[in-house]
Amino acid sequence: MFQVDTSIVPDTSQNAFFLDSLVLRILGQNPGKMTLQGTNTYLVGMGKSRILIDCSDGNASYIKLLARVCQKHGVEHISDLLLTHGHLDHMGGIMHIRKLFPGIRIWKYRVNMKSEQSMRLGVRDLSLMKSFSVGTNAILTPLHASGHSMDHVCFQLDVNCSLQDNKRRLLFTGDCILGTGSTSFTSLQLLLATLKKLKALKSDTMFPGHGPVIVNTKCKINEYIEHRVQREQDILVIMGRSKVPIGIDKITSILYQNVTFLVRMAAKRSVLQHLMKLQEDGVVKVKVQQRTWYFWRPRNLFDLIDSTSNGS
C-alpha cells in the first residue's frame, strides 16, 4: 500500500470547494485512516437543480453541511443521487438525503429491485440509465467499473462547450482510484481490467472518492497498474524463498511492517486477491486445510529458456 502523504490530502477545513465550474466537492465529514480526509461527494451542474454523486455515511455533520452549501449556492433541488457503490461511507446518508430533498431519484448499479431494502430506500437500477443531462452542454455517463467491489461504477462527465478550448472530460472514479494511496479490491483481475478501461478514456481530470483531485490521469493509472504488478512480484519472491507452503498472515507481515491493525486487515485481503489471481494464472496452488499457498510448476522452470539453444 502506498504511503499516504498528508501534505497533499485536502484540509478538512475545505469542506466545500469548487473543482470545476460544474463540480462542487463537499467533504463527507468522516475523516479516518481508511477514508483519508473523508468521503468526497460531488454536487454536479449549475443552477437550482443539480446531481449529487455519493452521500457519505449518514453522519449529521455532513447532512447539515450539504444543506448549508445548497442554500449558499442557490440549489433548491437535487434531482438525482448517483452512488458509485454500496459501501457505507458512500451511501449511508440515503435516508437523510431523501428527507432533505423529497422526490430525489436514487440510483445504484446491481440493485435487487424486489428486496425489502431497495423498496424501503427507493433505490433505482442504474443499469437502466445510459446517461444524465447536466445543463445544456454536458452529459454524465455511468461506467461499470468492478474490482474495488462488484457493484462499482464510475461516472464520466463530458462537457461540450461552444468554445473548443473549454471541451473537457472529467471522471468521477469512486474508490477504483484514490487521490493518494492504493485502493482495496475484491477482484484483482477485474480491477486491472477496469484500470485499463479507464485509461483508454483519456480523461482530463479525475475526481476520486477519497483524496485530492488527480490531474495527471494517465500517470496515476499507470502507477496503480505498476504497483499491482510489483506487489505480485514481491509475493512471488517471498514464496520463492520459503521452503514450505506459506500462509497469508506470514506474507502480509513481511510485506507490510509497522502498519495499523486496520491497514493490516486491508493488506491481508489484498494479498489474498493477489494469490487468487496467481492461482488462476496457474502459478500457485492452495492447501485448503492448512490455509497455505505454494508454487505450482507443471513444467520445468528452465523450460522458459529455449531448449534448442546450444548454450552459445
From TrEMBL:
InterPro entries reported in the protein's UniProt record: LACTB2_WH, Metallo-B-lactamas, RibonucZ/Hydroxyglut_hydro, Sec-metab_biosynth-thioest, WH-like_DNA-bd_sf
SMART domains: Lactamase_B
GO molecular function ontology, one term from the record: metal ion binding
Protein name (Swiss-Prot/TrEMBL): Betalactamaselike protein putative
Keyword check for NADP: no
Lineage: Eukaryota, Sar, Stramenopiles, Oomycota, Peronosporomycetes
Stretches assigned to the Metallo-beta-lactamase domain: 38-210
Gene: AlNc14C36G3164
Organism: Albugo laibachii Nc14
Keyword annotations: Hydrolase, Metal-binding, Zinc
The keyword tRNA processing appears for this protein: no
Family: Belongs to the metallo-beta-lactamase superfamily.
